[in-house]
Amino acid sequence: MRPAGNGIDMTDHRLAPDVEETAEAIASMEIRGAATIAAGAAEALGTQAREAEADSPAAFRASMRAAARRLRETRPTAVSLPNALRYVLRRMDGRNVDALRESVTDAVAEFVAQLDRAQEDLGRVGANRLADGDTVMTHCHSTDALACIEAAVEGGKEIEAIVKETRPRNQGHITAEQLRGMGVPVTLIVDSAARRYLNEADHVLVGADSIAADGGVINKIGTSGLAVNARERGVPIMTAAQTIKLHPETLTGHTVEIEMRDEAEVIDPETRAGIGEIAVENPAFDVTPPRYMDAIVTEHGQFPPESIVTLMRELFGEGAAEPWAEP
Ligand code: RUB
Predict the structure, then answer these.
(1) CA 309, CA 286: separation in Å to the nearest integer?
(2) Which pLDDT tens digit goes with each residue over 34-43?
(3) Third-level CATH fold of 123-316
(4) Whose CB among 27, 62, 73, 254 lies 3.0–4.6 Å from 249's, allowing a Cys bridge?
C-alpha cells in the first residue's frame, strides 16, 4: 500500500480531512499534552467513521485502520495516543457498515467521557496529598496535574504555585494562565532556577506521557533533573497520570521512544549560524527512575512507582496488540 503525499490512501480508503488536520495539529503541537492528544485522536477516528465512504465492512475496517495509522505516526512518546486508538478499534464491531459506524461512534463517546471522569477522580486523590497553605512546583503543562490543584482549591485549600517555564516551548505559560484562572498565586521561574526555589516548595507535581512497567515516568524533558533535585532537598514529588498513560508494551521489555524535535525550537537558524558550527539536540522527554518519584496518582488511587506494574497487568494484560496493522 502506498499512501499519497496528501494523506489520501490510494488503495481502498480515503482519510477524512479531519483526520489529516488532527494528525498535523498533533505533530505541530497545536494539540498537545498526553490526555488532550488521546481525546483528539479518538475524536478524529469518530469523524473517520462518520465520513468513511465504505461499501463493505472490510473496506470500512480498512479505512479505520488507515486513519489510526496516520494518527499513530504523529508523535512517538505519549502512549495515551496508541492506547486511545486501541480502545476505539477494539470496540469496532458489527455485521454491516452502519453497525460498525455506530460501534465506533459509541466507543469514541465512551472513551472521551472516561478520560474526563478519570481526570476528575485522580484530581481528588492528588488533592488529598496537598495541605492548606502548600506551595506546589510544576513542570510543563499537564491537565492531570492541574486537576489535582483544582480539586484542592475547590476543597477550600489555599495553594500557591511555582511554575517552571519549561523551555523550549514554554508550556509553563499555559500552566501559569490556567492556575491564575483558578485564583492560585503563581511565581514563574526559568528552568535553571528550580533548585533554588525548591526551598520554598512543599510538593513537586508533574504529569506523564508514559509510565513504564518498572515505574519509570516519561514526561517533559527536565522532569528527571527536577526529581533528583527534589529528592536531594527532601521535597516530595508526585506524578498525576490517568491509567491511559500506562505503557503496555513495556511489560514485554520494550522501551519508550523519546521524541527528538526540531532543533529550531532550541535556537533560531540565524542565531545558530552566527555562533558557528554547533550540534543542537532537542529531546522532548526524559525518564525519571522510580526511585526518585514518591507516588503515581491515578483514577484508581495512588501507587508507589514500583507497584504500578500490578495495575498495568490488570488493565492491559501481558502486552499490546496493534489493531491498526493490516491483517
Ligand atoms: C506535555 C507533557 C505533559 C504530559 C501530561 O508535553 O509532558 O506533562 O503530556 O499532560 P508536550 P496531561 O507539550 O510536548 O505534549 O496531563 O495533560 O495528559
Answers:
(1) 20
(2) 999 999 999 9
(3) Rossmann fold (3.40.50)
(4) 254
Has 140 been annotated as catalytic? Answer: yes
Q: Is the CB of 175 under 6 A from ligand 1?
A: no
CA 169 to centroid of ligand 1, rounded, Å? 12
Fold of the domain built from segment(s) 10-120 = Four Helix Bundle (Hemerythrin (Met), subunit A) (1.20.120)
Could you tell me if the CB of 171 is within 6 A of ligand 1? yes
Query: Using an 8 Å Cβ cutoff, are 260 and 284 in contact?
Result: yes
Catalytic: which of 134, 140, 148, 286? 140
Please choose, from the candidates 259, 245, 250, 239, the residue with its C-alpha nearest in 3D space to the C-alpha of residue 210.
245
Where residue 14 falls among pLDDT bands split at 50, 70, 90?
Answer: confident
d(Cα 102, Cα 205) in Å, to the nearest integer? 39
CB 149 within 8 A of CB 161: yes
Q: Which of 121, 134, 144, 209 is catalytic?
A: 209
Q: Is the predicted pLDDT of residue 1 greater than 60, yes or no?
A: no
Q: Read off the C-alpha cell for 8.
A: 489520501
**Angle 298-300-302 from CA coordinates, rounded to 5°:** 55
148 part of the active site? no
Domain ranges of the chain: 10-120, 123-316
- Rounded distance between C-alpha atoms, residue 273 and residue 16, angstroms: 41
Alpha-carbon gap, residue 25 to 150, rounded angstroms: 27
35 lines ligand 1 (CB under 6 A): yes
Joined together, the cell numbers standing for residue 313 give 497487568
Write the pLDDT tens digit of every residue in 294-325.
999 999 999 999 999 999 999 987 667 899 99
Name, in order, each residue with C-beta under 8 angstroms of 137's C-beta and a sequence gap of 6 or more. Answer: 161, 162, 163, 164, 194, 197, 198, 201, 203, 204, 205, 226, 230, 235
